[in-house]
Amino acid sequence: MGGGGFSSNPLEMSGAYAAFGNKGIYNQPYAVRKIVKPDGEVIQLNHTRRVAMHDYTAYMVTDMLKDVMTNPQGTGRSANIAGSNMAGKTGTHNIPDDYAKQYGISATQQRHGALASWFVGYNTRLTTAVWTGYEVKNEQKNDKDYGTFLGPTEQQYAKPFSETLWLNLWLVLRISQSQIPLRHWATVNWL
Questions:
Q1: Rounded to the nearest 5°, which phi and psi values hold at 189?
Q2: For 15-59, how does the pLDDT look when each residue is reduced to its tens digit (9 = 90+)?
Q3: What confidence tens digit (pLDDT) does each residue in 159-174 have?
Q4: 3-state secondary structure (DSSP) of residue 95
Q5: Distance between CA 65 and CA 107 in Å, rounded?
């Protein structure tokens, strides 16, 4: 994800944005915190944790990014989830002139299209990042069944996908804070 000289992936973006929701503390993204062996031995897995910014900086950025979700003109409002106190950022990677020329993309398609779009949403408990786009390889550039850019509708795919992901994960978090065992409510498959 990214434009110009910067590129990233959804895992890196979710890790970076999570620091805003965590009062400026960066935690390296991870999926497993510990392993419990059949004999009861617990193996703790460590992950990187460090101060990335002052807590007041994280608060100010989060306050601004909440507008992205709640303002009627906000680009992330379609992914907002009531009650989640969510902040977010959307982005697109515009189509460069040389790319448009190479793949025969018209000026109108270039103006309204994008190479990629992404959305990162977070609060103090959860961060998600979704990327949508094409990685065109030379052998695919003349394949009529393979796309070379996102049209206006396709640019919006990341938001409803993120919303669905958020709703499911938010439900798991809310249930896990209750006294009812999680296994009675949901099964989560992590990819």
A1: -105, 115
A2: 999 999 999 999 888 777 778 888 988 888 777 889 999 999 999
A3: 676 677 766 666 666 5
A4: coil
A5: 32
Q: Which two tokens stand for residue 190?
A: 């992590």
Which residue stretches of the chain are H helix? 10-21, 55-70, 97-103, 107-112, 158-176
Rounded to 5, what percent of the chain is helix, strand, coil? 40, 20, 45
CA–CA dist 81, 170 (Å, integer): 9
- Two tokens at 2? 């990214």
pTM as predicted: 0.71
159 close to 74: Cβ distance less than 8 angstroms = no
Q: Which residues contact 83 (CB under 8 A, 6 or more apart)?
A: none
